[in-house]
Design a protein that fits this description.
Radius of gyration: 16 Å
Order of helices and strands: EHEHEHEHHE
Strand order of the largest sheet: 3-2-1-4-5
Number of helices: 5
CATH architecture of the domain at 12-50 and 90-152: 3-Layer(aba) Sandwich
Shape: globular
Number of strands: 5
CATH superfamily of the domain at 12-50 and 90-152: HUPs
Structural class: alpha/beta
CATH class of the domain at 12-50 and 90-152: Alpha Beta
């Protein structure tokens, strides 16, 4: 498992977008690290299309859901961009339409774009759920990304 080396200068920091409160804590951490290192900060959102969907009702529902999802995302990004401007950090936003799983898409993006550090929120399950639910951060870590990773709870 990769760990974050504070002594290494980061040129490119990435944060996977997830619609959860822990994302905002992770974003603040990523923003601070990018600011300290004068690094590029990439916000990456993956829209997952399961393979093999035909032109039917499900596709129409997926398209409507996608547009609603992107509309909500655009509103969030506006605030995040303001935070980045205030911090004097360059923020790039990437929306990926993928047939890959979101975890694979995030790891592939990091690999192809020379990401030095991925900062992501970790949603911890409690009670019985912790035995049955997995978080996407677990899936990403299982893929062994080639960059350093920080998990924020």
């Amino acid at each position: 498992m990769n760990t974050y080396d504070k002594k290494k200068k980061m040129k490119h920091v990435m944060i996977p977008f997830r619609p959860h409160d822990v994302f905002y804590r992770a974003f603040e951490s990523a923003l601070n690290i990018a600011k300290q290192n004068k690094a590029l900060l990439s916000l990456v959102k993956v829209i997952h299309y399961p393979a093999g969907i035909g032109l039917d009702t499900f596709l129409v529902m997926d398209m409507v859901s996608r547009e609603y999802d992107l509309s909500k995302f655009d509103k969030i990004v506006t605030n995040l961009q303001k935070d980045a401007i205030t911090a004097k950090v360059k923020l790039d936003v990437h929306v990926l339409d993928m047939h890959l799983s979101p975890a694979k898409a995030f790891v592939e993006f990091a690999s192809k774009n020379d990401v030095d550090l991925m900062v992501m929120g970790k949603i911890t399950s409690k009670g019985w759920n912790k035995h049955f639910d997995s978080d996407i951060s677990d899936e990403i870590m299982d893929l062994n990304p080639q960059c350093n990773v920080i998990l924020v709870e």
